[in-house]
Amino acid sequence: MIGNTAVATATEMQNNFGRYLSLVMDGIEVIVTKNGKEVGRFLPRESAVSYLTESLTGILKEDTDLDQIKEERLREKYAIAD
Length: 82
What we know:
By secondary structure, this protein is an alpha+beta fold. The protein has helices at residues 10-15, 17-25, 45-56, 66-78; strands at residues 5-9, 29-34, 37-42.
């Protein structure tokens, strides 16, 4: 384990899922590897929500009208004249 991160092979994860689930519940991120390559991560819920919120910040402006954007994209896609 490195800091708040643990690394487990897919086989270890499969054979000891309860152990790794407990780690995640305790706030530790678990990186899953297969054949030496990272294939996934198990994140504590708070970390996942925080990560998603931070990654979306600034993408949408407060005055964005999603229905209008959807309509514009459909018009472009199907070449519908105004």
